[in-house]
Amino acid sequence: MSNEIKSKWSGKRFGNGWLKKIAVGALALLLFSAAPLDSNAKQLIPKSKIFDLMAPGKELIRDKELYNGTVQQSFAFDNVNQHIYVVQLMAGGQQLPGEEAPVSGAKRSEQGDLTLTKLDIDGNILGHMFLTGFGHGVQIGVEVEGNTPYLWTETDSVAEGKDGWGTQLARFPFNNGAILTPDSPSLEKHRLIEGVDRTTVNIDPANELLTMRYRKDGVFHFALFDLKQVKRNKYVPIADVLQPPMGTFQGFTSYGGYLYILEGNAFGNNGSVEPYGNTYITSVDWRTGNVVDRQLFTGGGSLTFREPEGMAIRIPNMKHPQKAQLSIGFASNFTPNRWGNIYYIDKLVPEKSLKR
Fold first, then answer.
1. Bridge-partner residues for 253, per DSSP?
2. Residue 181, class by beta-carbon neighbours within 10 Å (0-12 exposed, 13-18 middle, 19+ buried)?
3. pLDDT by residue (tens digit) across 3-41?
4. CA-CA-CA-CA torsion for 261, 257, 326, 53, nearest 10 degrees?
5. Which end of the chain is less packed: N or C, by CB atoms within 10 Å?
6. 263, 297 in Cβ contact below 8 A?
């Protein structure tokens, strides 16, 4: 993913004392504040514990093949059926029905063509789809209705430079082997905010909330919506916060009252050095837009390549949604056979107990 914003922050806990030491503290607080919303909207933000970002990372899957050999871009969980969905840029050299010849990887990226791989919880391939003209696959989500999983992705890709990026959101059921375009009848499309681009999406399965990252007037935001209302075409945000300054953005997810943002690079890029790299997770309070914590994530330090790619919430047992896992994806191995990996943090604590 592109390096959208540079960071100068350390990996230390954030607290009032630290903020008082910087001359631009007042400006930082202004930048991180939530957009004004009425009190009724803010009351809809659920109270929850926060993931302790200093907790050790645990391994879920490691070095798993995906349908294409490209870098995984993001992933999401079907927590009811215990499946994983991973999205990647479509590999070059493939020719789909209706195409006159095999298409290069560069052209696939420009067009926003994606490959979606379905895995079991152990990382074994169960199926795939092709999503042509959808975007960059920066982040996806899964919603389960009954026992039927629905994917949430960006769609209606528009080329910017060498890559295509989504301009609105799509919801569709998984259909093994299917090839979708932005005009496919199985797509249910949602334009949540007018006049924005770089739209990407994530689902909080415990609280039935949808988070959309978007760019407006060159600035990245995150907006939180009630999932049921979105499906009724009622697009009123519960919260809207600015993205804090950071290095290479790599994904996001949300759980309860907190937003989690991933950044970092593969080993050997932008200061990422083995074995710890520069993969940071930032937590943001949805009510205020303030950064609560930012920590270096060291899980998967022995992976080859190790580029952070995507975040998601896993709930091993939906009867106990309070026992959640904050999951972090990595790409490993080398071209043309990149592999998928997922690590997680499962320690939830009251915010006041974080040691700053």
1. 260
2. middle
3. 343 333 434 344 443 333 333 333 333 333 444 455 556
4. 70
5. C
6. no
Instruction: Judge contact between 154 and 200, C-beta under 8 A.
Output: yes
- Mean per-residue pLDDT for 315-328? 97
Of the chain, the end-to-end C-alpha distance in Å amounts to 31
Query: pLDDT (tens digit, 9 = 90+) per residue, 135-156?
Result: 999 999 999 999 999 999 999 9
| Contact between residue 246 and residue 232 where contact means Cβ atoms under 8 Å apart | no
Contacts of 201 by beta carbon, 8 Å cutoff, 6+ apart: 139, 140, 141, 152, 153, 154, 169, 210, 211, 212, 213
User: In b/e form, how buried is each residue of 2-34, taking b as 16+ CB within 10 angstroms?
Assistant: eeeeebebeeeebeeeeeeeeeeeeebeebbeb
Strand ranges inside 9-93, DSSP E: 50-51, 58-65, 72-78, 83-89
* Integer Rg of the chain from CA: 19
Q: Residue 42: what residue type?
A: K
Name beta bridge partners: 210: 203, 225
CA 107 to chain centre: 24
DSSP letter assigned to residue 237:
-
Residue 34, token pair as written in the block: 């939530």
DSSP 8-state secondary structure symbol assigned to residue 36: P
Size (the chain), residues? 356
